[in-house]
Design brief:
The chain contains 7 helices and 12 strands. It is an alpha/beta fold and 297 residues long. The strands form 3 sheets. The chain has an 8-stranded parallel beta sheet with strand order 7-4-3-2-1-10-11-12, sandwiched between helices. Strands 5-6 form a two-stranded antiparallel ribbon. A two-stranded parallel ribbon has the order 8-9.
Length: 297
């Protein structure tokens, strides 16, 4: 932690004003593909509990992290809009904009009443801050030190204004090393009757999704040129930027070489048995062979 006061922190090159030491998580999940979970109603059409299985990594956007079991989540709006159970869950990594780290979270009591707390985002377990920017450049989207979340703020000569946390999710999954990302709950078709997969009132904002669609279409060739491929698991999505892949196919890809539970743990401590079997078949298995032989067996 940077021990300086607020004025000193603002000029500190190490902590970038956060008061926290930098941590490099680049490639943390590589080379595993993963799921990007958003909050559209189609999220309820998949077997959500399968995301709890070993081998599956996932990053959720906003309160969808409280609706589906995920490995990590990211938020962009004020931290007070997101359920305290997500903030306080030590099993779920939190990626928070650095400007939100010192903000206090809210709780919702069993009586349905909201209360402010003396718990800051940075006091919660598993929290990592990141820098974000309201500047958008498709060519540097994957490489700029700050994550782009749309053309907004004081960005000059922008065609339109838009800030979308989903863009932060895509940048983070690339940073974490996922070569393939499968999107869940990306509908781009909000209705007033059921705007989200979970209970929440909201007016339709499909014009906003049309803008995101434009940015994603611009980003797709940049992504694929970098070996980063994005797919959509909703066949009825209005998001036109990425190809459709069924959830079960995506799940098998994300599962990789991790077999279903319970694991067969017998004989692993008996070294002579393994040595005998390897001597009989010394060829090294490739990652593809591990996946095909163990997962589909």
């Amino acid at each position: 932690n940077c021990k300086g006061d607020r004025k000193q922190r603002k000029t500190c090159e190490a902590c970038k004003g956060t008061g926290c030491a930098p941590i490099d998580l680049h490639g943390l999940w590589a080379p595993s593909p993963g799921f990007l979970v958003c909050g559209g109603p189609s999220l309820n059409n998949i077997p959500k509990e399968k995301l709890r299985e070993r081998g599956i990594v996932s990053l959720a956007v906003n309160n969808s992290a409280g609706h589906v079991p995920v490995t990590a989540w990211v938020f962009g709006d004020p931290q007070s809009k997101f359920h305290h159970g997500i903030h306080l869950d030590p099993k779920c990594l939190t990626f928070a904009p650095t400007g939100k780290l010192r903000k206090r979270i809210y709780v919702k009591t069993p009586e349905g009443k909201f209360r402010a707390t003396d718990v800051r985002v940075m006091d919660c377990p598993g929290v990592f801050g990141f820098s974000r920017s309201t500047y958008f450049n498709k060519n540097t989207f994957l490489t700029d030190p700050s994550a782009h979340w749309g053309p907004g703020g004081k960005m000059p000569n922008r065609e339109f204004s838009l800030l979308d946390t989903m863009l932060l999710g895509l940048r983070l999954m690339h940073y974490l090393g996922c070569p393939r990302v499968y999107m869940l709950g990306v509908d781009f078709n909000m209705t007033t009757e059921q705007p989200y997969a979970f209970g929440q009132k909201k007016g339709g904002r499909n014009g906003r999704y049309a803008k995101t669609n434009i940015l994603l279409k611009e980003l797709r060739p940049i992504f694929e040129n970098d070996g980063f491929f994005v797919y959509n698991c909703n066949p009825d999505s209005k998001c036109e930027a990425f190809d459709y892949v069924p959830f079960e196919q995506a799940f098998l890809d994300c599962k990789g070489g991790v077999p279903p539970e319970p694991f067969d743990l017998s004989e692993w401590y008996e070294k002579t048995i393994a040595e005998k079997h390897i001597a009989e078949n010394p060829a090294l298995m490739t990652p593809e062979e591990v996946h095909n032989h163990l997962v589909k067996k």
